[in-house]
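Changelog note: in this version the structure field was regenerated for every chain. One regenerated record is shown below for reference.
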Amino acid sequence: MSAAEHQRPFGDRRILVVSTNYAPELTGIGPYATQLAEHWAASGTRTDVLTGMPHYPAWRVDERYRGAWRREEDRHGVRVHRRRHYVPHRQTALRRATFEASVLVHGMLAPPPGRPDAVVSQMPSLAGGVIAARLARRHRVPHIPVVQDLMGAAAAQSGIRGGDRAAAVAARVERYALRGAALVGVIHESFVEGVTTLGVDPGRIRVVPNWTHVASPSGDRATTRARLGWPEDTPVLLHSGNMGLKQGLDVLVALARLAPDIKVVLMGDGNQRHLLREQAAGLENVEFLPPAEAEDFTDVLAAADVLAVTQRASVLDMSVPSKLTSYFVSGRPVVASVAAEGGTADEVRRSGAGVLVAPEDPAALLTVVRTLASDRTAADTLGANGPRYVEQHLGRQGGLARFDALLTEALEGAGAAAPGTRAERAGDIQGGEGR
């Protein structure tokens, strides 16, 4: 390959990325869709994004976009096409279905103009997967969905009201979006079985893990704690990110009730935030913070003593929290109150940066937090494993290169995967360049 071809691996091709979440959203799937599209645009590829109005994790439309039906933007070389949709402040199966339907209808009625050479979709958005599949079929080009969450499994496992009925419908929609795809990317090998069950040939599944999309901490830890009002002699247990049903964050409120000497900080937003505030009423050791600004985010994480990732006991194979990649960067120990057989537990084990605790068990969680808070050496040893894991397995350059390989294979229409990329070799990927 010549130097020019290396700089422009896809030549003058046009790529359409369909993702309900995109910048300026700072957490969840949005940053990955954004960095992927900007990476392709920076290489000279004509890149369009079909997305919604920024709303995550607050589940409220960003005030800068309220009232707009459509918005066209140029962001760092990417042409962004925004379409209005319904945003539910609280999650039920019906409200979620209305959200997806509104995304689908407006996206199909007003797709970006022109013919793409490939369509990449970020799921769990069911509507995004259907839009991408239909546009790819219309233009007879490859569709490459990337499964970040399995919505059918999510509806069944997350505890959302009406979830059983929603799970069946979501699974049918996922099957439609995935079965005709040229290739299917999954961010963790634990998703392979679920995607295969939806009718996808395992030979068309590729493991493309997410990468760390935030910078390493740079501020002085003591200074950050003082600014936040966290006393140096008070252990701080911090959860950052979405406050939704599947997180089961009531376990942290229950821990705070058991341990008034430990400060529990919930930083972020989500549809369960108001309920958690009600549960924590009267607990002086529980603090709610808004999402941190990008330039301050990892400094706040690093200022905590222990970082928490929690999930309901029923959550097994439908989600691997994107917050883990940020947690590992911070250099602080992670306590994971999650099912031992799920993908989240797999990541914590691989990293060596945390401790697993049975889900929905505040007393067990408290025991581990107390141990780490009292043994700084053990906590620092665990925490130091996180940045090493990031350097070895979660680098942005390596993550984007895997997506380049995925897109290249789909565009070339290769009948067989390149060595080391087939789903059945996921273990090799995880031990090397993958997670």
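Spot check on this record: The domain at 3-211+395-431 is CATH 3.40.50.2000 (Rossmann fold). The chain has two domains: 3-211+395-431, 221-393.
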